Amino acid sequence: MQRNKTSILFFKRLIKYFLILAILILMMAPLYVKSYDLAKRLTIEKSSARLEDGIGALERQVLRAQEIANLLRQEESFKRLFFLQGEPSSAYYYDFERLQTKLKSLSLTQDLFSNAYIAFRDNPVFVSNSLSSDNADDVYRRYYRYPGMTAQEWKTMLFGKTDVFRILPSKAVHSSYYSRHDFQAMTVLINNSYYNALDVKSVLAIDINTEDIAKLLLYEEQLRDHQVYLTDLDGNLLLAKGSEASASQADTLQEVLTKQASTGSPKEGAIELNSRQYVTLSDASTQLGIRVVVAIPSSTFETNIDALMELVATYAAAGAVVVVLLAVLFSMRETLTLRKLVEAAGTLSQVNFTTLNEYKYMDRAFTRIRSINEEQLGRIEALNRSIRYSVLKNLLVLGVHTQRELEEAIDCFGDTFERFCIAKARWSTEENREERDEATPASLRPNPGIELEKVLRTLSDYGVLALHFHANEAVFVLFGKSEEKGSVQELGDRLSDMLRTLGRDVPSSSIINIGLSGMGSGLKQARPAYEQAQCALSLHENGISSGVHVFERSGSGEGGPEFDHTIPLKLHDALIAGEERGTEQIFADASTQMADHARTEQERLQIFFTVRQTVSNAHKVMRLGNGYKEETKVEALPEYDQTKDVFKLFDQLEQTALELCRSVIGRKKSNNDRLKADILNYVAENYGDSSLSAGKIAGELMLSEKYVFSFVKEQTGKSLGKYIEELRLDKAERLLMQTDEPNSAILKKCGFGSENTFYRAFSKKHGVTPSSWKETHRKLT
Q1: Is residue 511 domain-shared with residue 654, that is, in the same domain?
Q2: Are residues 667 and 775 in the same domain?
């Protein structure tokens, strides 16, 4: 019987999976039939996407070149060279170097992977991203040229037309600083003249390697047999790239493009080149004024189709085998699982098994399991409540004295005791009322403790814990948020008003008295708060009327002083600032007030823990501050010990606070020394900057200008301006002695803003001009 049950379940599962396999096969049949069109379309879409991306990359290259041209026009060096007529003098050499550096920097930052240079019509200056020269003809002859083209023809090509932007047909280019061998390149000319619409006086030329263009437009595997053609919008051939591509095929290519445009399919067509059939893809860039055509051999489609067909057939066969195996495997696993569930369902539901109702068995089994789980969860929750009740009772009655007790309380309550107060309630009922209620079952009589708990939950938005000690006594813990500003007295007034509404739910003859403690913070304050509530209830409880009584702290003796609650705030500020004397005075005041204010040991402990928490908070702030060293040795905060006197613990806490002050002072001194070194180093590294000032130094180092001025004066005995001027003059003297650079270059390297400033400062120090001083000292040397 058991084997028959298993076989039936197995075959039912197996039939289900075979039906799924049949559906999948039927769904794959149309895909197999359409594989040819799919392969062709995928190949065309792949090439078309690559073509669009490649044209976009070419447009970005040209846009970057135009951005570079615009940025170069703003350079003073470019302006000087642009308006130069004829041969440049040596004074322009600095402009060559400056413009070449700028062009090289822009080429790198703009990701310009091409050969780039600037040529001027009215002067022989040549500047590229690799070299610069005052003789363009010499550069053309030795380093850069178009083979078969003279220098004059090169000039005519550059400045022959007034177009703002031109793309020249690809030519062989020789550039010894770009490539060891001649390379085919398509040149882009950008008119970067100031009045580029009227005249061409300067051009930025970009030589884009045709190999790079082909890699942009084709995938790596397509470079071998695909053809690439670039024409302008008028049909003139700019580039022919591929194993069989040639300029002689331009007419045939133009005819195909014209036919595509007339048939309404400008991006896709067919062409025959050298007796081979090609499928053409074309795209145009109106921004560049070019059209790109990619010719794909028809044999590529056949290869891709054959590969796809083989792949489809292979995957179909492998998939069928895998699906059959998985169907058998899953059927077996599902059968074993269902058999266990069916057996469990038969045991729990007592229903005979049939081959049509196994899911009914499972539904009953799950329902039964869910019911059992709910019962177990109820027991676990009751156990957790019992544990929490026990821990809370121990916390209130006995208090926390050991680390283990504290950890147990934290596990149960977490940080809920961040702000709380304790309410202890007692109630009594007249005997004649109890006698009259004897006919009412005890379970149906109203319980003042439960009704009072409901009232307290309406007053506290953040939770209430209740302990019912006796039949007529209960303790409640009311929680609040740390940012709440409401006082316990306000809570007592609201609770007094709510007590009047209890007459509807409890016997009218019931007398309820409630004692409220002050606000506490932390698990260690639970027992003192409980004692305060008990004290308030014991002092004011009476058997005549109900009432709510708030614990009031009293000083020592008659009219004694209250504890100054501003002491923790003053102490926190003194610790953060590292004021050792102020900290000693605050501890002395706190010790005096503790002796005057606290009459009991518990009150002294409360003051001690308040001050201890302040020291702990200040220590945490220091650890989070910048520059705090982990290795700083600070004495640990003293822990409460019943065997020690509170005043001795207070003395230990004072020593810890003084250690914190000393660590703050040490850290400030270390930061100040580092700051001084940063100021002098910054001036020494940047005095060559003509815009160096106290404001710039203060901004870089995040200081005030007043501090910079006073510090330099203190360290050097000179004002900031005089100190910087001396550094610049020292460097100028070294350059005058060791180099032959002109004074105009030296004053710029040394950071002088103008020639007048340089000559005036030099003459003030030496009494002569820099040139005279240089000549005299070189003769002496």
Answers
A1: no
A2: no
Tokens representing 712 are 């330099």
Most confident segment among 129-143, 278-292, 309-323:
129-143
pLDDT at 556: 43
- CA nearest 690: which of 772, 756, 771? 756
Judge if 662 and 721 occupy the same domain.
no
Which residues constitute the domain of residue 482?
415-550
Q: Do residues 588 and 657 both lie within one domain?
A: yes
Q: Measured in Å, how far apart are the chain's first and last C-alpha atoms? A: 120
> Same structural domain for residues 250 and 194?
yes
Q: What is the CATH number of the domain that holds 730?
A: 1.10.10.60
Same domain? For 83 and 186 the reply is yes
pLDDT in tens, 654-669: 888 888 888 877 776 6
d(CA 25, CA 13): 19
Pairing between β-strand 165-167 and β-strand 183-191 as defined by DSSP bridges: antiparallel
Model confidence over 52-96: pLDDT tens digits?
898 888 888 888 888 888 888 889 999 999 989 999 998 898 998
Beta bridge partners of 189: 166, 205
Residue 387 resides in a domain:
no
Q: Residue 337: phi, psi to the nearest 5?
A: -65, -45
Q: Which residue has the higher pLDDT, 735 or 361?
A: 735
Same domain, 574 and 509: no
Using one digit for the tens of pLDDT, what is the confidence trace for 298-322?
777 677 667 767 777 787 778 778 7
Contact 43, 279 (CB under 8 A): no
**Helix ranges, 625-719 (H):** 646-686, 694-701, 705-716
Kindly indicate the confidence band of residue 753, based on its pLDDT and cuts at 50, 70 and 90: confident
Q: Minimal CA–CA distance to 54: which of 363, 291, 338, 315?
A: 291
CATH number at residue 542: 3.30.70.270
| pLDDT per position as a tens digit, 469-517 | 666 788 888 887 655 555 777 777 788 777 776 655 555 557 888 888 8
3-state SS class at 185: strand
Where does 169-234 show beta strands of DSSP type E? 171-175, 183-191, 202-209, 227-232
Is pLDDT above 70 for 350?
A: no
Number of CB atoms found within 10 A of residue 272's CB: 12
Residues listed for the chain: 781
Residue 558 lies in a domain: no
Please identify, among 550, 580, 608, the residue that sits at the C-terminal boundary of a domain.
550
Residue 393 CA to residue 387 CA, distance in Å, equals 10
d(CA 501, CA 492): 15
d(CA 638, CA 655): 10
Paired tokens of 453 = 């708990």
Residue-wise pLDDT for 377-428, tens only, equals 888 887 887 888 888 888 777 777 677 878 888 888 877 788 888 888 888 7
Q: How many Cβ atoms sit within 10 Å of the Cβ of residue 446?
A: 14
CA distance 97 to 599: 87
pLDDT for 316-339, tens place per residue? 778 778 777 777 777 777 777 766
Q: What Å distances lie between residue 150 and 119, 140, 144, 561, 651, CA to CA?
A: 15, 9, 11, 106, 97
- Which residue, among 757, 758, 751, has the nearest Cα to 690 in the 3D structure? 751
Q: Are residues 614 and 707 in the same domain?
A: no
**Lookup: tokens for 488:** 């316990």
Which residues are paired to 516 by β-bridges?
Answer: 423, 550
Percent of the chain past pLDDT 90, that is, above it, reads 4
Contact present, 513 and 425 (Cβ < 8 Å): yes
Question: With b meaning 16 or more CB within 10 Å and e meaning fewer, what string describes 673-712?
Answer: eeeeeebeebbeeebeeeebebeebbeeeebeeeebbebb
Residues β-bridged to residue 15: none
Domain count, the chain: 4
